[in-house]
Amino acid sequence: MSIITPDPNHHSVILGKDQPMPLDCGAMISDITMAYNTYGQLNPDKTNAILVCHALTGDQFAASKQPLTGKDGWWSVMIGPGKVLDTDKYFVVCANILGGCMGTVGPKDINPDTGKAYGLDFPIITIADMVRTQALLQDYLEIPSWFSVVGGSMGGMQVLQWAAAYPERCFSAIPIATAAKHSAQNIAFHEVGRQAVMADPDWLGGKYLEHDKNPRAGLAVARMAAHVTYLSESALHRKFGRNLQDRDNLTYGFDADFQVESYLRYQGINFVDRFDANSYLYVTRAMDYFDLARDHGGSLPAAFEGTQTRFCVVSFSSDWLFPTTESKEVVRALIAAAANVSFVEIETDKGHDAFLLDTPEMLQTMGGFLASTAKSRGLEQ
Amino acid sequence: MIENTTLTRPQDIRVDLQLIAEMVKPGSRVLDVGCAEGTLLSHLVATKEVDGRGIELSQAGVNTCVSKGLSVVQGDADADLTDYPDKGFDYAILSQTLQATHRPMLVMEQLLRVGKKAVVSFPNFAYWRCRSYLAFNGRMPMTSSLDYAWYETPNIHFCTLRDFTVLCNDLGIRLEKSIIVGGDGKVLEYDINSRRANFFAAQCVFLLSD
User: Which sequence spans correspond to the domains of chain A?
Assistant: First the structure.
């Protein structure tokens, strides 16, 4: 499906037309519709392109209005004229991931073989598969190498996969609040989310679109549970405490008495309006399967052996979903591989979501890293 | 306070950095452990064209380094040197940091594991002004620019020139070059093992190998 949007930055392309692309699961995929946004201008040397990889529930509208919610892009704080990813200097590309639901082919699209939505007939996809399609997009855009590949959370997994799979095609890499593998705790949270979706009677074994249904309640619960993991105990306390929602007393019932309950319900309800339930299953699965060391004989340094890519790894002190220990594991592997790496842990109580927010130390570190990297890339400052 | 002289006056730091820089061969691979705001590392990159990396404990220090274009990771000498491969650097530098480490001996061993050579600089606690401050005031010596009281100083393992050379001897570490500097910032030509050296040296810089 194509997103109807007046956004002049929005594009869509069909990749892998002549050459079907093999997926990790063994299936082949061809005629891959990919939706992407671009901001800024590609320079004549094609050396100023930055790929932004979005997270689990993000999309290509990184720096422009999301057409379904009407809200500003999820990384508007980062991308724009004069910002860290300065669109006066850089050509920023952000594509909806394979398996997504904002224009790139995913389980809610029509399977040409059946004329019905794919549902669970969509092949299982991995982070590596997402990156393969982004490499096809890079070819299509005729960009020999990205100046930088940048992303947080699942976006950071894609950044690491990029650096491991196509080191010569990314000059620098900024993995933020991420890990080289999905931890048992994170798989556990994802499983809770998936089971919530599948327990919804409207999920119908994944065929809800054929019956004009939507497992809204299940997906909303999945989002609520996940949303808690994006915050921190102290951020929740600071934001809500035990404050009551529009009332002076407890109701002695199961209404949303507390502000935090009301907030989570709002997050859940809003999410289902813009996200496909099956897509949520597929993309969480892709994150669970991610294990960069396993793909390189059990050795994470082997994934980065001989790399010339410059790395800037960023973590946040209160992130318990992708804690600093996970980032340090990546840093350790990069050091062992003699890679050019910078690493900083940002002190903040904002939790995992800090990478999406106006976190001055993060912006400052990335800005400094990109400025010096631009210099060594020979880009005009 | 020790009047007129300190162990870390700006000009002393500059002397210290210059002496370290003179020990580093151009174009080499350098790890600066405890690189602070990257002053030495930038100097080495600019004047010696080294391939430089750093480790720094403070977020602010790392930020400053990264924005200068240096490759610096947040970490500390005690815990994070073990991550580095054997002899991956031509030089592992520990400038004015030894006295702030928890386990100086292990740090010394790690320096010479990750570096083919190590460069270590530190203030000499047996410097005569320190001795006299302790002797006559009966208080722990403090400096005017780094005026930490004993109960809040990050410098938990001060040592003397003599202590250091004995440790190197015990660890089988060779002193390839030894330079000592007096309170006026001038290089002293005394025998490194002499009592005079240990009395008059304010700063010591060593090039070490195993």
Answer: 10-180+295-377, 186-284
Q: CA dist B12 to B33, B35, B81, B122, B189, Å?
A: 19, 17, 27, 11, 17
| Contacts with A318 (C-beta within 8 Å, 6 or more apart), sequence order | A232, A234, A235, A348, A349, A350, A351, A354
The string of pLDDT tens digits covering residues B9-31 is: 344 456 888 899 999 999 999 99
Which residue in A101, A119, A113 sits closest to A209, CA to CA? A119
Does A340 sit within 8 Å of B63, measured CB to CB? no
Condensed to tens digits (0 to 9), the pLDDT of residues A25-36 reads 999 999 999 999
Q: How far apart are CA A30 and CA A16, in angstroms?
A: 5
A186-284 fold: Rna Polymerase Sigma Factor; Chain: A (1.10.1740)
A32 touches chain B (CB under 8 A): no
> B31, B58, B71: which to substitute to probe chain A, counting the most A Cβ within 10 Å?
B71
ipTM of the complex: 0.84
Domain B10-209 top-level CATH class: alpha beta
Q: Which fold has domain A10-180+295-377?
A: Rossmann fold (3.40.50)
Name the nearest CA neighbour of A79 among A15, A174, A6: A174
